[in-house]
Design goal:
Length: about 280
């Protein structure tokens, strides 16, 4: 039987889905999107295939590096320790799914808040205009946000070291990076996999080539951000390049908020569906 909190959350997700259908881009964003698509369509198919393959390999390697890192294992253990304060019978990540949706949201929100702060600080440091800090800004943003997706998945009781969960976390990450007016496409694909029961598999049997024009658009937006920071770093206020720091911090925080919000909604919807469809209580 679906709880009152789950029904309320599903209603909020439905409202969010409706918001995804709206196109609220500025004229600058529309122009940039059209220009990128035009230029990408002019590239030979073989060149695009190589470019997208490089992107995919980069994301796969980063995912593996983060997953196997000591810091990620420590974060996993911390999630379990925190979960034990909410339920005594918590010994492994899948046991978290016995907790209520409010408790799971609390665990995920701890990771969400933490990574938004990381992104804010990292963006502010980039805004100082240092060559080294600017050079590592894009890789740092990818690492922070990909790690956030992984930890949010763990907070809802999903082990990301299986082939299916690894690919799913990458798909969630890719979908969250899409321009907002196109996120509904990625959301629909992810939602469909939940409905057909693909999420119960160990191995992933869907499309493994994830990179597309939107990844290029994401990178170009980051390059534009860095260019603006470079232009404004000389505007000093009380000895500090405050304007460029605010731009760097604000844009990076906004990106992480977008990624973590999308990820939270995906895993919330998924666990509510799986819990209640097994019990025969889900009716969309």
């Amino acid at each position: 039987m679906m709880s009152g909190s789950e029904k309320l959350l599903l209603a909020e997700i439905e409202k969010w889905e409706q918001e995804l259908q709206k196109d609220i881009r500025t004229d600058v964003e529309r122009t940039l999107h059209k220009w990128i698509n035009k230029k990408m369509n002019e590239l030979p198919v073989s060149v695009k295939r190589i470019l997208f393959s490089k992107f995919d390999k980069c994301f796969f390697h980063l995912h593996s590096i983060i997953q196997g890192s000591y810091g990620q294992q420590e974060a996993r253990n911390q999630i379990l320790l925190t979960a034990k304060t909410l339920g005594e019978d918590i010994y492994q990540l899948k046991d978290l799914q016995s907790l209520s949706i409010d408790q799971l949201h609390y665990l995920a929100n701890l990771q969400t808040s933490k990574h938004r702060i990381y992104s804010l600080i990292q963006g502010g440091m980039t805004g100082t205009g240092g060559i080294l800090l600017s050079g590592v800004d894009i890789p740092a943003q990818i690492l922070i946000n990909l790690r956030a997706v992984q930890l949010i998945a763990m907070s809802y009781g999903y082990e990301i070291n299986t082939p299916y969960e690894m690919m799913t976390s990458l798909k969630v990450f890719h979908a969250s990076l899409m321009p907002k007016h196109l996120q509904s496409v990625g959301w629909s694909e992810l939602k469909n996999e939940i409905h057909i029961g693909a999420a119960q598999a160990y191995f992933y049997e869907g499309e493994e080539n994830l990179a597309n024009n939107y990844d290029v658009e994401f990178l170009l937006k980051q390059i534009v951000k860095l260019s603006v920071i470079a232009l404004l770093k000389e505007k000093i206020i009380s000895g500090v390049p405050l304007i460029s720091m605010m731009i760097g911090a604000g844009m990076n925080y906004r990106l992480t908020r977008q990624v973590t919000n999308f990820s939270n909604i995906y895993y919330q919807y998924r666990i509510i569906f799986e819990k209640n469809s097994h019990a025969g209580g889900y009716d969309e």
